[in-house]
Amino acid sequence: MSEAIEQTGARYPLLAKRTSKRWLITAAVTTAIVALPVLSVLILALFPEENIWPHLLDTTLPRYLVTTLQLMAGVAFITLVIGLASAWAVTMCDFPGRKFFEWAMLLPFAVPAYVIAYVYTSLLDYAGPVQTAMRDWFGWHNAADYWFPEIRSLGGAAMMLILVLYPYVYLLARAAFLQQSSAAFLAARTLGHSAWSAFWRVSMPMARPAIAGGVLLAVMETIADFGTVAYFSVQTFATGIYTSWFTMADRAAAAQLALGLLGFSLALALLER
113-124 vs 129-138: helix axis angle to the nearest 10? Predict the structure, then answer.
């Protein structure tokens, strides 16, 4: 392919220059379109009408930061466990229905997280069928008679995101396990390692880049999610940006929060490297 292009350039230098200019112009226009929103946020954040960072630091920013970190940690850990375990099971184990679960584990990609939130809230809320059936069966009269986990909470929001985002880890981990040679795992077993030890010492290190990429994608989706956390009234950076822009009509505050979120995402990507 490259030889053909070089020969074409040698025979038709004017055509090669025109093609090169067209590609350069196309790349520049595409880059400008993609970079325009980021540049707008940078301008709004770096040149505000007034300095609002002291106000953010004293009021909402610590709450946004703590809640976002808690949500990220929960989603990252449980998506890692579920995605890694399911990928290893369908790749290295043989059981009835394995072929079905190979693609069925990807079905959560088809449902947005906020839709899952609506469904589970209607099922598990106080007026939902689950708690209503429990009160009928055990003779309970109100919520003071029993304990049931609160679905409209930080943990509930994390669980909704986990149910939707674990396929990122599953998909990339399964692809990494399929590319590995089983000889290395079997060699570790013959050298006296248990299946668990061979997994951690041989298979896991080779698949680490793919697994880390899947977890990073899940975390990025988590910090960018608005519908689920807003429905559960969980205050994160995403809800803070929306509130600052539309409710408080403070575009500078929203842009600065968005810039902080962008920097946080870049820091996560660098940390994985």
Answer: 20
Q: Which of 216, 219, 214, 220 lies closest to 177 in space, CA to CA?
A: 214
Count of CB atoms within 10 A of residue 171's CB? Answer: 18
* Residue 199: partners with Cβ closer than 8 Å, 6 or more residues away: 88, 185
Q: What is the pLDDT of residues 134-189, one digit of tens each?
A: 988 988 888 888 888 888 889 999 999 999 999 999 999 998 888 876 667 777 77
Pick left, alpha or beta for residue 152 (phi over 0 → left; psi -120 to 50 → alpha; otherwise beta). beta
8 A C-beta contact, residue 197 and residue 188: yes
Helices in the chain by DSSP H: which ranges?
2-11, 13-46, 53-58, 61-92, 98-104, 113-124, 129-138, 154-179, 182-190, 195-198, 204-224, 227-231, 237-242, 251-272
Over residues 11-63, the pLDDT tens digits come to: 545 545 566 777 888 888 888 888 887 787 777 777 776 666 677 777 777 88
Question: What is the CA 31 to chain-centroid distance, rounded?
Answer: 25
CA distance 180 to 268: 27
pLDDT tens-digit readout, 74-109? 999 999 999 999 998 888 888 888 888 888 898 988
Q: Count of residues for the chain?
A: 273
Q: Which residue reads 């409209």 in tokens?
A: 152
Q: State pTM to two decimals.
A: 0.78
Kindly provide the b/e burial profile for residues 251-263, where b requires at least 16 CB atoms within 10 angstroms of the residue's own CB. bbbbbbbbbbbee
Query: What's the confidence (pLDDT) of residue 2?
Result: 46
Q: What is residue 9's predicted lDDT score, i.e. its pLDDT?
A: 47
